[in-house]
Target: DNA alkylation repair enzyme
Amino acid sequence: MIKEIREELDQLGEESYKQFNQKLIPGTDHVIGVRMPALRKLAKGIAKTDSKQYLEEAQTEIDERSAHEEIMLYGLVLGYAKMSIEQRMQALDMFVPKIHNWAVCDSCCMGYKFMEKEQEVWFSYLRKYQNSSREFEVRFFIVSLLAHYINEAYIEQVLEILNHTSHEGYYVKMAVAWAVSVCYVKFPIQTKRLLLANEMDDFTHNKAIQKIRESYRVSREEKVELNRLKR
Model:
């Protein structure tokens, strides 16, 4: 099945989009050039018909050396397919270590709406990646939080986690800054307290302020005040 899907991906690939996409995901050498709408359509089709067989094969057939689109498709199917919580956790355990760029991480995390249905269960699951040494495992954790847990019930826990995430990876720092900016837009009072006193490194702290100031949902007065908090 994986072989047939690879052939379909090759047919969907566009050389011009491949060249464009490669510039956005440095370090990813094997790119076919398939656009996201086409990938999502293919993933939904697999999820409705052959998700069990596909995911079983993907566990062994797809790895970090596979094409960017193959890994992306794998993660998307995992989000669309119907399965039990336990089965999805096992599937994620196999998928997350294969993530090797921000695009796969973010696109898949944003689509994992199942986390919003059983928040406590999935919050507990996600914590396993909090202290990983692998950059994109930690980013998976942070982006999942910003996508599904910036709400009344979890805001304080999320801010505490962001404050104490100290991985040196660039894509972790950027994810933390992004998450802080989303927290500020939704919960400015609580997030302002974090910005006034935190343990984030200077790069992440300043990048978070930059991202907040780029938001059209933050007033000019707030942006001026936040600029004074830069280190």
